[in-house]
Amino acid sequence: MSDASLTPRSIPDRLHSPAARLLASWELLLLVVAVAIFIANTLASPYFLNAWNLSDATFNFTEKAMIAFAMALLIIAGEIDLSVAAIIALASTAMGAAASVGVGTPGLVAIGLATGLTCGAFNGVLVTRMGLPSIVVTIGTMSLFRGISFIVLGDGAYRDYPSDFAYFGQGYVFWVISFEFVLFALLAGIYYVLLHRTNFGRTVYAIGNNHTAAQFSGIRVARVKFILFLLTGLMSGVAAICLTSRLGSTRPSIGTGWELEVVTMVVLGGVSILGGAGSIPGVVIAAFVMGLVTFGLGLLNVPGIVMSIFIGLMLIGVIALPRLWKMWRA
Amino acid sequence: MSLLKSREALLGGAILVLLVLIASRFPGFVAPDNLVRVFTDTSPLLILALGQTVVILTRCIDLSVAANLALTGMVCAMLNAALPGLPVAVILVVAVALGAVMGMVNGLLVWTLSIPSIVVTLGTMTIYRGIIFLISNGAWVNAHEMSDAFTGFPRASILGLPVLAWFGILAAVGMMVMISRTPLGRAFYAVGGNPHAAVYTGISVGKTQFWAFTLSGALAGLCGYLWVARYAVAYVDIAGGFELEVVAACVIGGISIAGGAGTILGTILGALFLGIVKNALPVVDVSPFWQMAISGTAIIVAVTLNNRNSKGKGRIILRRAQDQASEGATV
């Protein structure tokens, strides 16, 4: 190595041009994967390229993705919430109980959102006030929240929802564009702005990259984290409204295992599980990838459990391949 | 004093209070043969929690244990259905080996590619579950397809205890010896306590984590056979969600999720606590639907208490160090 390469003149003004950075980005890689899956699906099944079928396919991921947006922020900030699916169960149970005594649709929505917020606040207080590790706290509240649903419902179910409540999960805004898909797109926009265009978003990255440095630079770390837990709880409430409305019934086992699918979606979207890195566009594309894979394989009569193998392989593969590539080149 | 304040003593006390409370109304619950039954029922949870403890000690987490258990169980059941004459000893070896291999897959991904363990095991969890479906086509292996030797083994009685309970005891004792008397056992603590310092003392962090996952996998494989043989049925969803109960047992037992802190005794008590609660609910006539909420509350209470303890300790150490420093300055 000659020292000449280290002279100031040879240091470029910018390390990578924006175009080069985009080409090497995680989001582009995911987009290529998504397009490849789309083409493969089109070739594999004659029923795939149909507006109504594709519209149905979006239901596979819209509800999970709504939670994934908030979860992405939480994971970027270095925390995690494994209780989201349990919050869905509790919020759905609360709405079902209210519906059975004749509460109308606006009241049900308010109850769903309030339950989500309360659960999020509970997690947030335990993590930020008591200083407990979020993974343990939310494994605990996951049992607690769903446990309350089981205590209330046992092996029963709530079914008597008002008929106009069905709109959130079954309604269409325009042609094949469902209400859920519109909500998904809207929330994607809101979270994009929140994470990438506001001070709040910058503080989320700062906390995830160096918790202590963030504290010393005047960021109210505990408050930001508390807000993120609130948001995750709120989004779980929103997802609970959509899912309950779509299914039209509530059982305590509603949404079982979703916490892991949501985390998978977030990680697949390029968010570092260690915190500090990730983007909303990545999560959006990951949502499409997961939805397309599940739907495409479903059209080919592949059972759901086999699809989960693909999701698992994808999760490990997309993280392992770049690392293998780096090791191979080194 | 330190003994009284320790987590293990606290948890042991809580278990005793729980037993006394139950016994005051239902003396039959603490009858020796019922306690044996409770312990036997808790053994699979205990064995899995022991493996999980080692993994958590090294700052990792293994969410694939329940899927590993189910896959090994299915393989054992299908093996038995296909070759009824195969001795149980061979099946045991197959179970432990298969479980260990699945643990090694986790361990290798964590070690060589340094992918966070939660991501790796989240992935392998769904993959292992999916493989069960692929090999079984979603079909069940039922009791009538299994040989008597296969299903009878965990229930066979040795010195008044079922073999299943003996496996729980053996695993607990073996793990205690391993963790306190072998270099590998100490390495688990070193890696979790301070990975950088561990490297400087010549311990490979990745390799230690690899062995932790292998151990956890082998124990999960062992449980796979025991579980399937005990309940005499194997299907895709057995022990679904059990991985979280296993983590819960560790957390209640005082294993710090941040790694490097906790004892095997704590894990044993944590598993027993959950096992007693689970078995006591029907006895005290509380709907079993309460179990989930109770174990959730127990986790939150336990982690809160553990946190208090460790905070107190930190302060005391500082004060002593401060005292020593000021003494040194005056002398």
TrEMBL record, chain A:
Record localization: Cell membrane
Quaternary data: The complex is composed of two ATP-binding proteins (LsrA), two transmembrane proteins (LsrC and LsrD) and a solute-binding protein (LsrB).
Name recorded for this polypeptide: Autoinducer 2 import system permease protein LsrD
Recorded GO MF terms: transmembrane transporter activity
Keyword annotations of the record: Cell inner membrane, Cell membrane, Membrane, Transmembrane, Transmembrane helix, Transport
GO cellular component: plasma membrane
Role summary: Part of the ABC transporter complex LsrABCD involved in autoinducer 2 (AI-2) import. Probably responsible for the translocation of the substrate across the membrane.
Annotated TM spans: 23-44, 65-91, 97-119, 131-152, 172-194, 226-247, 267-293, 305-325
Domain of life: Bacteria
Pfam families recorded: BPD_transp_2 (PF02653)
Source organism of the structure: Sagittula marina
Bilayer disposition of the protein: Multi-pass membrane protein
TrEMBL record, chain B:
Chief site of localization: membrane
UniProt superkingdom: Bacteria
Gene Ontology CC annotations of this record: plasma membrane
Transmembrane portions of the chain: 49-71, 83-102, 108-135, 156-179, 210-234, 246-277, 289-306
One Pfam family named in its UniProt record: BPD_transp_2
GO molecular function, one term: transmembrane transporter activity
Alphabetically ordered keywords of this record: Cell membrane, Membrane, Transmembrane, Transmembrane helix
Keyword presence, Hydrolase: no
Topology in membrane: Multi-pass membrane protein
Compartment(s) of residence: Cell membrane
Record's protein name: Rhamnose transport system permease protein
Species of origin: Sagittula marina
